[in-house]
Amino acid sequence: MSKKGSRIQVILECIEHRKLGLSGCSRYITTKNKKNNPNRMKLKKFNPILKKYTIHKEIK
Fold first, then answer.
1. CB 16 within 8 Å of CB 53
2. Residue closest to 12 by CA, chosen among 36, 49, 37, 47
3. Tens digit of each residue's pLDDT (9 = 90 or more) over 4-53
């Protein structure tokens, strides 16, 4: 008996860190409801390398 749902696991990566071209990356794993949020997520999360809150975007 498997649980079928519309929640999927997504990875969020800092876009500011990627633009700067620094080594390492700030990534978070979270879940989202595919039916309610069909587009890519953008959340403000803490980047420990830059030591500030930045926008993290969903990646494939």
1. no
2. 47
3. 778 999 999 999 998 888 888 899 999 999 999 999 999 999 999 999 99
